[in-house]
Design goal:
Elements: E1 4-7, E2 11-15, E3 26-30, E4 35-38, E5 47-51, E6 54-58, E7 67-71, E8 85-87, E9 94-98, E10 102-109, E11 112-117, E12 128-133, E13 141-145, E14 149-153, E15 161-166, E16 177-180, E17 188-191, E18 200-203, E19 211-213
Antiparallel strand pairs: 1-2, 2-3, 4-5, 5-6, 6-7, 8-9, 9-10, 10-11, 12-13, 13-14, 14-15, 16-17, 17-18, 18-19
C-alpha cells in the first residue's frame, strides 16, 4: 500500500510497498512535525502538508521524493501553530492556506507560489482552523474558526454566510477537523476539541444550522 503520513517528531513519512502490509512499514522522508496532508491527485504525487513555519510539498510518488518547502503567506493574524491547508480539488498546483483570511496559493515553479488573499475577513481574533470543499459541488465551501464559528460559501469562497449556531472549539495547536459529505452538498461535519462540549457537530442545510452529535460515537 502507498500511504503518506505526517507525525509529531517523526516527520513526513511514506509507506514502503515492497514490505507488504498491513500493518504498513514507513520510511521517514524528512524529520519534524507535519500534519494536514492534502492532495487532489488521488496519488502520492503533489501532496501538501504543513509544518510550523512552512508548507511541505511532495512532488512525486515514485523514486526518491522531491520535496519543496513553501513559505507561508504574509498573514500574521489567525495563523495557528499548525495552520490548516486544503488542496484545490480541480488543480493540483493550487492549495488554500487558512488564517484570518483564506489564501489561494498557486504554483509558479518549484517552491515559488503566487499567494492571493481572498476577500472575506473572518474577523478580529478569528482564524480558520478547517476548510472543506464539497466533492459534489465545488462551489460549496465550509469553514470553521478557532472559536467554533461556522461559515458557508456557495460561490467558491467569494462570499460567506455565518451560521447562528456555534460549533466545537479548536484544539489549541492543531485546529479542527471537517468533512463534507461525498453525496450531498448540503451536509457537513465538524470535529473539535470536545472539552466541555460535544466533539462533533453536523449540518444538513448547507450550514445554516448546526447540531451536536453525541450518541453512538
Amino acid at each position: 500500500g502507498l500511504v503518506a503520513a505526517g507525525a509529531q517528531d517523526q516527520g513526513w513519512q511514506n509507506s514502503n510497498p515492497g514490505l507488504g502490509g498491513p500493518p504498513y512499514q514507513f520510511t521517514q522522508v524528512i524529520s519534524g512535525d507535519y500534519g494536514h496532508p492534502t492532495s487532489s491527485t488521488h496519488t502520492l504525487n503533489m501532496v501538501y502538508s504543513v509544518y510550523p513555519g512552512f508548507t511541505l510539498l511532495q512532488e512525486n510518488e515514485t523514486g526518491p521524493p522531491v520535496l519543496q518547502l513553501i513559505d507561508f503567506p504574509p498573514e500574521t493574524q489567525g495563523v495557528t501553530w499548525m495552520p490548516f491547508i486544503l488542496a484545490d480539488p480541480d488543480d493540483p498546483d493550487v492549495y488554500y492556506f487558512c488564517a484570518r483570511h483564506i489564501w489561494r496559493c498557486r504554483r509558479i515553479s518549484g517552491a515559488d507560489y503566487a499567494e492571493t488573499m481572498m476577500p472575506y475577513d473572518f474577523g478580529v481574533g478569528q482564524g480558520v482552523t478547517a476548510l472543506a470543499i464539497s466533492p459534489v459541488d465545488h462551489q460549496y465551501w465550509y469553514a470553521v474558526t478557532n472559536q467554533g464559528y461556522c461559515h458557508t460559501s456557495t460561490d467558491g469562497g467569494a462570499n460567506w454566510t455565518l451560521s447562528e449556531d456555534v460549533g466545537p472549539g479548536a484544539h489549541y495547536f492543531y485546529g479542527t477537523a471537517i468533512v463534507a459529505s461525498p453525496t450531498d452538498r448540503h451536509t457537513c461535519w465538524i470535529g473539535g476539541s470536545g472539552y466541555s462540549n460535544p466533539a462533533v457537530w453536523t449540518a444538513a442545510d448547507a450550514g445554516e444550522h448546526w447540531a451536536p452529535v453525541g450518541s453512538g460515537l
